[in-house]
Amino acid sequence: MWGQTSSKKNRGAKGTAKIESLIGQHTELRGDVEFSGGLHVDGTIKGNVIAAEEGRSVLSLSERGTIEGEVRVPNVVINGTVIGDVHALEHIELATQARVTGNVYYSLIEMAMGAEVNGNLVHCAEGSQPRLTHAEEAARKAEVDPESESEAPTGEDEEQAGKT
């Protein structure tokens, strides 16, 4: 994950930030995190992670780290677990232990053998924003057919429940 090739790419013409903030292994944050520069996560974040600085910010998530929420950072290195959509509109690296449950929006992607994405990979032109996030798409579907998720049990369902 921290090999020479990755660090050279992260110091490209635009130059990305060095790691300035750390969330330790035994730390859990609840709520959104907005940062600029570099953020390394060994712990857990239950909320969205958003980069305030366009183009230079970098997020690295170790194999011990977990994020439950949406990630909006231009440069991302994931070797842990993300439950939510990831918007890495410059560069994303999915290392061998990366687990993403949600859509990944990217301009440039590297994916190691063993990495998992349980969602869609959506290519976006560098710097462009996709039309809908996973949460927005789900909300839109719920508005179109609100009864599909919460159907009342039918008589057949009650009969089946009585038989077991």
Walk me through the structure.
- This is Protein CcmA, bactofilin family.
- It comes from Thiohalospira halophila DSM 15071.
- By secondary structure, this protein is an alpha/beta fold.
- It has one domain.
- About 15% of the residues lie in helices and about 35% in strands.
- The chain has 3 helices and 18 strands.
- It has helices at about 5-10, 135-145, 155-164; strands at about 20-25, 30, 35, 40, 45, 50, 60, 65-70, 70, 75-80, 80-85, 85-90, 90-95, 100, 105, 110, 115-120, 120-125.
- The strands form 3 sheets. The protein has a 6-stranded parallel beta sheet with strand order 1-4-7-10-13-16, with no helix packed on it.
- It is globular, with a radius of gyration of 19 Å.
- The termini are far apart.
- About 30% of the residues are buried.
- The model is unreliable at about 1-15 and about 150 (pLDDT under 50).
List the helices and strands and how they pair.
Layout lengths: L3 H7 L8 E5 L4 E3 L2 E3 L2 E4 L2 E3 L2 E3 L6 E4 L4 E3 L2 E2 L2 E4 L2 E3 L2 E3 L2 E4 L4 E3 L2 E3 L2 E3 L4 E3 L2 E3 L10 H11 L10 H9 L1
Parallel strand pairs: 1-4, 2-5, 3-6, 4-7, 5-8, 6-9, 7-10, 8-11, 9-12, 10-13, 11-14, 12-15, 13-16, 14-17, 15-18
